Amino acid sequence: MHNVTKHELNFISQDIRSIIQIVLGNKENPKMGVIGLGLPPFIALVVEGCNNYETADKQQKIFGQFENPLFEKYAKTIRKLRVREKILDDNRGGLDALNDTLAIVNKKSLESFLSPHRGFFGRFIRLLQPDLGIFYFEDHLISTTHTAILTVGLTDEQIVALKPLEMMEVLKNHSKEFSVMTGEYLGELAKFLSERGYWTEPSTLPMAKENFQLISYNDYYAALVYKNIIDHLELSQPMLAPTIIFLLTQVNFVDKILTKLLPITSNFLLRSSFMAAFHATSSLKQLKERNNINESSKFIEMIELIINSSDSNFILRASNVRNILAHYELRRASQFLTNSGDPLDDVLVGLCGKSHEEILEIAIRQLHNISEIFGAEISKTKLRKSRALFG
């Protein structure tokens, strides 16, 4: 008999170690804040998985004495972050809900940027005021001031309630408080697991400084950026431009940042990469289906290049792999455990015939392919004419 619970607890401890490695290894680096804009949906993947596991009835013998207030205060934030990680693969509204949220974000962001400028001269300043900031890794978008509002985990109601002059302070405080409580939750869980023999101290793996230096920022006029994308992709539905940017930042964050923060042996890297590849590919397929099937546009051609590949076919068919990587309970997949192999590797090979290394390679290749195909039309170079006067 295999000790299935032992393997599952080790999976949890390994992912917590990876998150600690990222945070501690880069806490002194001035660009860590940018990484923090893209990381929360993937941390929520781990945090929600841990909570679901430790609150399950059958785990009460182990976790009955473990308590933490994170989910009492931030359950909605964590659920919303999990929705963001799924992009359009969500049963709470999917594409329409994301489009609506991004429209609210755009409106609130514009109000926030313009509200300080009043009076006679204020009218002229408002004409020149940028209302969208974009972060890049080299030429690739990794976050924007619009997508960052989504990746701090605010609900639509919370976003609507934001007041222009207080918006940035509210977002900053929410993000800080949530990050601190999440860190405390993971720290206490790590201590709890350590006391029961399921923990080893992580070694820090700081991202190379030269990679951080490739992160940059520019200010833009949002209307010009979105018009640029609408024109370049020949979009028949203009409201899709912000949604496409959000999808691309999710893909690029994993492909350009997370892959440089963690070793290829990291289970957290595998979970994040495969989930990002699965949901981005599935979302692109949905976007194609929502457009006119006979429509001929650059956008449709780009999607077809991606979803008609062998990697896309494997990823979309591997829903059983996605389900295992989204949770910590092995359930029926425990039948694939062997006496000598790596437990997660055993399960993955049993489910789809491919190893941890092979699945990670496919996922990263898929993310890179999406990044390059869309990056040919949406990049720092392509958006240069949309930059603000002093951006």
Outline of the structure:
This protein has 391 residues and is mostly helical.
Per-chain topology:
Blueprint: H1 4-26, H2 32-38, H3 40-54, H4 60-63, H5 70-86, H6 94-114, H7 119-128, E1 132-137, E2 140-144, H8 147-150, H9 156-160, H10 167-194, H11 209-212, E3 215-220, H12 222-233, H13 240-261, H14 267-290, H15 298-307, H16 310-317, H17 319-325, H18 343-352, H19 356-375
Antiparallel strand pairs: 1-2, 1-3
Helix pairs in contact: 1-3, 1-10, 3-5, 13-14, 13-19, 14-15, 14-19
Which features would summarize this protein structure in a list?
mainly alpha, 391 residues, single chain
Please give the alpha-carbon distance between the first and last residues. Answer: 62 Å
Sheet with most strands? 3 strands, antiparallel
Class per helix and strand makeup: mainly alpha
> How many domains?
1
Sheet-strand content, in percent, reads under 5%
Overall mean pLDDT stands at 87
Fraction of helical residues: 55-70%
Topology, number of strands: 3
- Choose one word for the global shape: globular
> What is the helix/strand order?
HHHHHHHEEHHHHEHHHHHHHH
Instruction: Give me the side-by-side strand order of the main sheet.
Output: 2-1-3
Stretches where pLDDT falls below 50 for ≥5 residues? 119-128
Number of helices: 19
What's the alpha carbon Rg, rounded to whole Å?
21 Å
